UniProtKB/TrEMBL annotation:
This is glycerate 2-kinase. The keyword Nucleotidyltransferase does not apply. The lineage of its organism: Bacteria, Thermotogati, Synergistota, Synergistia, Synergistales. One of its GO terms (molecular function) is glycerate 2-kinase activity. Residues 9-230 form the MOFRL-associated domain. It is an enzyme of class 2 (transferase). Its EC number is 2.7.1.165. Pfam families: DUF4147, MOFRL. GO terms for cellular component: cytoplasm. Keywords: ATP-binding, Kinase, Nucleotide-binding, Transferase.
Length: 415
């Protein structure tokens, strides 16, 4: 055991490492005997790293492929593969151009061939070809509307699937009679495979009736031609697909627990599905920390209490921040002057909201330190300006893009 903050960074580093794609990709590919010709298609924020490890494993067995990731997320050429970067969270011309390449490849395959499909979060924006009658401009507008309306990812993707020629199982249909073997890094709570990257190679579990409910629930004002396209049903069964999840928020939490125990802490996972408002979650975590300090419950100290999930922020202010930063800033209020407590929250992809930070870390001294530099926490939260507040007191966590993407890791350390 070192200082609480050093231990916190160690927990973050080691547990994020445990969900880097390499391990999962290698483990699964070793078990497999992929016959015929193998073609690789990788989509999402972790696409480059997933593709690199698959190529390193399978070497010249891979006959070609396409990798599509977010701008700034590729780490250079991979022999034999075409690497593209495109718009995220809103798709752009490069999304369409590179998706067309993947579609051409898939359509040209024969029985006995395999598409090794590497899927990670962010894939919905990065892999897109609109259905006939729907333009890229339409997709941009609808995506923007969906991202702002407060709908969750399952709801958002239910709509996206119907406006797309590749989402909702339709990419697998295009690849038929070849088989599609998918390795998936989950960034959807509960690991609903048909929602991850909008499930291009997985039977869709949503129905038109669900879509109608979503439109009503969020009062979405959609143009007529979009409403028309939404009526088209998606594939409900596919006979050429096989799917394995190789990383998820549960895995990162398990790993955080193991690291904490190895550092000498008692540790527990409280939940892997935290999905409430970020600032509320922060206050809740602070109250658990106070219970630890005052009543030594629920664990004997020193302890680490771990949560996984993805909180939400209804952005109303004009500041800069992300859900993890907002969570810890809010928590700082509740642990003010409590010694021996640290609360940390990070996005495992290394990017928390539209910032260069992965998240934040606070302790009992943070609230006072903010006051001393003239920052009122409530004001900062009201303006959704957690980034600048935490930056002032050196409480941001910066990792850079990690190459993986499995939701957020949140934990309390108490000494
Ligand atoms: N100023 C802000 N303060 C707090 N949160 C913000 C702010 N601006 C944007 N956000 C939140 O950041 C979220 C986007 O963050 P991020 O890019 O980490 O998303 P993500 O869910 O990890 O993306 P993906 O699912 O594609 O991997 C938005 O949903 C929004 O709620
Ligand atoms: O790309 C997406 O749809 C989200 O990241 C969920 O996987
Ligand atoms: Mg993120």
């Amino acid at each position: 055991m070192k200082s609480l903050k050093e231990d916190a960074f160690r927990i973050i580093e080691d547990s994020v490492s445990s969900v880097l794609p390499e391990r999962g990709v290698e483990q699964e590919l070793k078990k497999l005997d992929l016959g015929g010709k193998i073609y690789l298609v990788a989509i999402g924020k972790a696409a480059w790293r997933m593709a690199k490890s698959a190529k390193d494993c399978l070497k010249e067995k891979v006959k070609g492929g396409v990798v599509i990731t977010k701008y700034g997320h590729s780490q250079g050429p991979i022999e034999g593969l075409k690497i593209y970067e495109a718009g995220h969270p809103i798709p752009d011309e490069n999304t369409i151009r590179s998706t067309k390449e993947a579609v051409e490849l898939a359509k040209g395959l024969s029985k006995g061939d395999t598409v090794l499909f590497l899927v990670s979060g962010g894939g919905s924006a990065l892999f897109e070809l609109p259905v006939d009658g729907v333009s890229l401009e339409d997709i941009k507008n609808v995506t923007d509307m969906l991202l702002r309306c407060g709908a969750n990812i399952v709801e958002i993707n239910a709509i996206r699937k119907r406006l797309s020629r590749v989402k909702g199982g339709k990419f697998a249909l295009m690849a038929s009679p070849a088989r599609v073997y998918s390795l998936v890094l989950s960034d959807v709570l509960g690991d609903r495979i048909d929602s991850i990257a909008s499930g291009p190679a997985y039977p869709d579990s949503t129905r038109y009736e669900d879509v109608r409910k979503i439109i009503r629930k969020y009062d979405l004002k959609l143009p007529k031609h979009i409403l028309q396209s939404l009526r088209e049903e998606t594939p409900k069964s596919l006979d050429n697909v096989e799917t394995r999840i190789i990383g998820s928020v549960s895995k990162v939490c398990e790993s955080a627990k193991n690291v904490a125990v190895s550092l000498g802490y008692n540790a527990m996972i409280l939940t892997t599905t935290l999905d409430c408002e970020a600032s509320e979650a922060g206050l809740f975590l602070a109250s658990i920390a106070r219970e630890e300090v005052e009543k030594e419950r629920p664990l004997e100290r020193p302890c680490v209490i771990i949560l996984g999930g993805e909180t939400v922020v209804h952005v109303k202010g004009t500041g800069k921040g992300g859900r993890n930063q907002e969570l810890v800033l809010s928590a700082a209020r509740g642990i003010r002057n409590y010694p021996g407590v640290v609360i940390a929250s990070v996005g495992t992809d290394g990017t928390d909201g539209p910032t260069d930070a992965a998240g934040g870390i606070v302790d009992g001294k943070t609230a006072k330190a903010l006051e001393e530099v003239g920052i009122d926490i409530d004001d900062a939260l009201n303006d959704n300006d957690s980034y600048h507040a935490l930056q002032k007191v050196n409480s941001l966590i910066k990792t850079g893009p990690t190459g993986t993407n499995v939701n957020d890791l949140i934990f309390i350390l108490c000494y």
